[in-house]
Every structure is written in structure tokens, then in C-alpha cells.
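User: Please run a holo structure prediction.
Assistant: Happy to. Please share the sequence and the ligand.
User: Here you go; the ligand is zinc ion.
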Amino acid sequence: QANPDTTFIVNADDPLVSSVTYNLPTSALYFGIDHKGEEIFSGIADIKSCPFCDETLIYSRRYMGHQGIFECPACGFKRKEPDIVAYDINSGIDSSSFDISFKGKRFHIEVRLPGIYNVYNVLSALLACYSMGIPIETSIENLAGIRTAFGRGERFNLGGKSIYMLLAKNPASFNEIIQLLYDKNGITVVLIINDNIQDGTDVSWLWDVNFEILMERSSLIVTSGKRAYDMALRLKYGGFDTSRLLVEEDSLKALNLAIENSDKDEIYIIPTYTAMLELRKKLESLGITKGFWED
Ligand SMILES: [Zn+2]
């Protein structure tokens, strides 16, 4: 039973989240995406069936994981019409631009945040601010000052290369990161996989990630971290040419290997959570601290 003064800010595209407030006579504001771009791959779904009747959900669009425009063919549960909608999304490796429509008005938004998941984050933040009385125009102005947190699409220079750090916390976010690299070619990638508690101790999820997309776009992959060899094995079984695969458990050495062996100006590091923290510490001890991060 929700307090009548409570307003829920709900992802309309997420059937699991949306089901919580779907039938409640409570105040809720919904956000969602109406994106007509190419669907690259559907990714991992946390749920496949209707939370009310267990029938398999049908999607007319699927944006990431189980989020999209869904409908249950049995009980009628479906994606609510969002109060705020994002469309015409262009999301790159370190920024995104899109339009939103809210209360009949259209706004253009540019943020220094990568990925469709950050479009969702922006929409939820805008609705949260609106529900607290902040005009949407004011919130949009303030979006311009937002930067990614360390490791989440951050960029720095090392060894004459532009290095991007793209945190991947689970198979779904791994697939989202890979999707960001979809239009790249011949890239150098460092995959740093740890299996500490915060990363998840069972690394069998590596087999659920769509690394095939990444392999097709990579000329060199260095695997690293406590599970460097599990990662390398996954790539080998996926058909990646092992002459373009290097394994180095130490993440800083792995990054150096990538810098030395890459013929590209850009290097993409995709670490799990504790791997990101470890590498950050090592970089800081080298003096590559926050002050050196590019704005
Ligand atoms: Zn249903």
C-alpha cells in the first residue's frame, strides 16, 4: 500500500518494473523509448514471460535485455503509454543525442553519456526532478554538465593512444557495450574479467555474451584479470583467430601489451567491476589520476 503522496517513476518498457504499479491506483509517471533504429541483437532477457499470467511476452520492439514495447497475448498486460518518450536516439561511445517528447513539447538532448541504458537513466532523472517541482527545461539545461563516472565510458590518454574504459557488470551490460562498438572495425580490445563477489563468482555468464559481434570487429583482443584464461577460451571456442589473441593476467601489463601491439589510435577496455577498480588504482599510482582525464 503506497502512501497517496508517493509518485512512482516507472520504466514503461520494463515489464518486470512496470508490473509493480500496473494495477495500483497510485500516482505513477512512466518513461520509455520509441526508437525505430535497427535492432542489432536482442541481448539477454531477465524475464521472458508475463509477470501476471506467465504467458510468453511478445515484443514489437526490443531495446535492451527484456526492455522494449511488449504485450502479453493472454491477459492483456502491455507497455503503458509513457509520459516522457525518447526517440531519434544516436548513441556513441562517449555521448548520446536524442529527442524527447513531454507534455506535448519536444526537446533535443545531448549528454556526455554512452548507451541506450543512459537514455533510460536521463528519462528517469527528468521525471524525478519534474515530480519534485523542477521545470523540465531547467533539468535539461543541467544535463549539459553531466559526465560519466569513472570507468563508465571514460577516456584518457596513455602511450599515445586514446583509451576508453567501459565497465560491464553483467551479460546484459556487456552486450550493451558491444553494441556501442557495432560500427567500429579492426579495433583493439582489452577484456578484464575478475570473479570476485562484486563481479559474480560464477563466470559461466561469459558464454551468454554476444562476443561474436565483438570478435568480428576486433583485430587484437587482450584478455586479462583473474579469469583471463576463461575469457580467452570463450573467444577461442567462438572462432577468434588465436594469433590475434593475447593473454596477460595483470591488467596494467595487459593494457601495455595492447598499446604496444595496436595499430589503432583507440583502445577499448571492458572490465568487470573489481577489475575496473584495480586498474584505476594502478593508473592512479602512475600519476594518471582524475586530473589527467580528458573532459
Ligand atoms: Zn499475461
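The helical segments are 15-21, 116-131, 136-143, 171-180, 211-217, 228-237, 251-261, 273-285.
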